[in-house]
Amino acid sequence: MKGYIARILRSIGAALLLGMLLLGALVIGTRLGSQQPIATQARSLGPTVSHLERIGELASARIHVTDILMADGEGFRGAWLIKGDALLACDVSRAKIWNLNPAARTATLRLPPLRVTAARVDHTKTKTWSVEKKSWLPGTGGNQSVFRDAAMHHAQQLIEATASSSQHLEPSKAQAELLIGRMYELMDWKVTVEWE
Predict the structure, then answer these.
(1) 33 and 84 together in one domain
(2) How far is C-alpha 88 from the geometric centre of its chain's CA atoms?
(3) What are the phi and psi torsion angles at 33 (to 5°)?
(4) How many domains does the chain have?
(5) At 48, phi and psi to the nearest 5?
(6) Which helix (H) or strand (E) holds 73?
(7) CA distance between the termini of the chain
(8) Is 70 in the same domain as 125?
(9) Judgement on whether residues 10 and 95 belong to the same structural domain of the protein
């Protein structure tokens, strides 16, 4: 019976202690909540190198390419309707910050050139027009599989070259400038872009 009463008294003591702790937390929380907030003014420091490094690579355009590839080799001649795409991207982590003016909230970013990334031939849409032997003599000519593989390698190079032409680079640069400018407008900064 003594052990039973001792357990009840310990339970009551623990409940009282828990109640006192909760009451104390409530009083402290009420006091903290009633204090006047400290007036602070937070402003962005503007473009920083670490901020740009977090962005990494900025893809500004996906270029879709359709072209005809004519190939000749291994004793074969072939033609394909090539379809594919490539991304034009800028490694923003290599950007340099110039003319930083915190008072006017303006800055200039010097970006590395755009480059083609992820150039690929879309094999589901690329069509073989024709592949023929150049000689009618039996036993002449090389391996047709090697010829096709080499042609698809050239097709990927064709897509890369087309995507990096000036007709695609200029609009992609404008798109990258717009994206970066809008990003910093959200922080009330005016950022202009220069290209290396």
Answers:
(1) no
(2) 11
(3) -70, -30
(4) 2
(5) -125, 160
(6) strand 57-73
(7) 89
(8) yes
(9) no
Both structure tokens of 161: 């070259």
Task: Give per-residue burial for 54-72: e unless 16+ CB within 10 Å, then b.
Answer: eeeebbbbebebeeebebe
172, two tokens = 């992609």
Q: Does one domain contain both 81 and 128?
A: yes
pLDDT tens digit at each of 196 positions of the chain: 556 555 655 656 555 555 555 555 555 555 555 555 555 555 556 676 677 777 788 888 999 999 999 999 878 899 999 999 999 999 988 988 888 888 899 999 999 999 998 899 999 999 999 998 877 666 666 788 888 999 999 999 999 999 999 999 999 999 999 988 888 888 888 999 999 8
For residues 113 and 182, state if they share a domain: yes
DSSP string, 101-151: ETTTTEEEEEEPPPEEEEEEE-TTT-EEEEEEES--STT-S--HHHHHHHH
**Does 136 share its domain with 108?**
yes
Q: Where in the sequence is the domain holding 25, given as residue range(s)?
A: 1-40
Q: What is the pTM of this model?
A: 0.65
Based on the fold, state whether residues 20 and 88 are members of the same structural domain.
no
